[in-house]
Write a structure and sequence with these properties.
Strand content: 15-25%
Pfam family, one: HMGL-like
GO biological process, one term: ketone body biosynthetic process
Keywords: Lyase, Metal-binding
Number of strands: 13
Shape: globular
Largest sheet: 9 strands, parallel
Distance between the termini: 31 Å
Pathway: Metabolic intermediate metabolism; (S)-3-hydroxy-3-methylglutaryl-CoA degradation; acetoacetate from (S)-3-hydroxy-3-methylglutaryl-CoA: step 1/1
Bound molecules: 3-hydroxy-3-methylglutaryl-coenzyme A, magnesium ion
Protein name: hydroxymethylglutaryl-CoA lyase
Helix content: 40-55%
Number of helices: 12
Length: about 300
């Protein structure tokens, strides 16, 4: 029986590392991307062009995308919060020697489902951020870059509590209408469970909504250990793209206490033998998870990765 393909967006080098307080040398970030590529990862979020005053750890992203191995056909999206970030990226692309695989062909823009989170993360309201991002998306499209969108806090907000799924739907729609090819739904805090995630998805894609699950992705932080369950639930709702982080690295600097994304190893293990195929070699990705956890001096946050280490 043919297995249906699931896309995995590996966000470890960005979401995974952005929250680390110790300085991580660019060479380690480059090696992380290269090891992931070797392990069969197809989409790797490589970093962000955000204000270094806000997220110092991502300041070296230009060095990372310049020096990492780039394979034809793979994608290496980078986060961009505003036109300034896009201009910095476009300058780099313009300086790139001809004939090389481009540093990236895709940006990711981000907003949120609450004003409180949006302000904490990007210093503006949802409405202001959508205006800002409309300009970014238009410019990126003109330059031939694909644009992916994120909506944060789709379940709970660390500042304003439970989130209304109708707002998640409306913000998602706005991102699609401005030209995002896909919108990733972020359970930033990681409190969602199959019931709350299912209800949120029902609102975003159900009823009078004309949003197809094929343009949505699930971005689930694993704070309460529900990441894999939430992905399995989302598969039932027709989603086929999920964000995950090798070794379960990560967290958002503006979501206190939230832990990393669901671990890539755990997602691959959960799908083994199912009717879904996800790219990437589990054993090799688990080795990358062990390696980066050691580099960062933390315990491996992937249950599967830890179990494989013990063998
Ligand atoms: P602001 O302070 O309102 O912006 O921040 P500003 O325009 O006043 O600029 C402040 C300073 O930053 C200025 O420098 C700018 O030049 C500079 P100064 O004049 O003071 O020396 N600056 C920049 N430098 C480099 N690149 C840029 C840039 N923009 C301004 N792009 C801003 C507004 C949006 C810039 C800021 O709030 C910001 O960078 N926020 C990003 C926060 C972030 O990266 N959060 C984590 C990623 S999102 C996430 O993790 C959630 C996600 O995983 C999904 C989920 O889990 O929910 C995606
Ligand atoms: Mg995140």
């Amino acid at each position: 029986q043919a297995r249906e393909c699931v896309r995995i967006v590996e966000v470890g080098p960005r979401d995974g590392l952005q929250n680390e307080s110790a300085v991580i040398p660019p060479a380690v970030k480059v090696e992380l991307v290269n090891r992931l590529t070797e392990a069969g990862t197809e989409i790797i979020e490589a970093g962000s062009f955000v204000s270094p005053k806000w997220v110092p750890q991502m300041a070296g992203t230009a060095e990372v995308i310049k020096h990492m191995q780039r394979r034809e056909g793979l994608h290496y999206p980078v986060l961009v919060p505003n036109l300034k970030g896009l201009e910095i990226l476009l300058d780099l692309l313009a300086q790139q020697p001809k004939g090389e695989v481009p540093y990236t062909d895709e940006i990711a823009i981000f907003t949120a489902a609450t004003d409180a989170f949006c302000k904490a993360n990007t210093n503006c309201t949802i409405k202001e951020s959508l205006e800002r991002l409309t300009a970014v998306t238009a410019r990126a499209a003109k330059e031939g870059l694909r644009v992916r969108g994120y909506v944060s806090v789709v379940i709970d907000c660390p500042y304003s509590g439970k989130v209304d799924p109708v707002i998640v739907r409306d913000v998602t729609k706005a991102l699609l209408e401005m030209g995002c090819y896909e919108v990733s739904l972020g359970d930033t805090v990681g409190t969602g469970n199959p019931t709350t995630v299912g209800k949120m998805l029902e609102t975003v894609i159900g009823g009078s909504s004309d949003i197809s699950p094929s343009v949505l992705a699930g971005h689930y932080h694993d704070t309460f250990g529900m990441g894999v369950s939430n992905i399995l639930t989302s598969l039932d709702y027709g989603l086929r793209t999920f964000d995950s982080s090798v070794g379960g690295l990560g967290g958002c600097p503006y979501s206190p206490g939230a832990t990393g994304n669901v671990a890539t190893e755990d997602v691959l293990y959960a799908l083994q033998g199912s009717r879904f195929h996800a790219p990437g070699d589990l054993a090799k990705i688990a080795e990358v998870g062990s390696w980066i956890s050691k580099q960062l001096n933390r315990t491996n946050a992937s249950r599967v990765g830890k179990a494989l280490e013990a063998r």
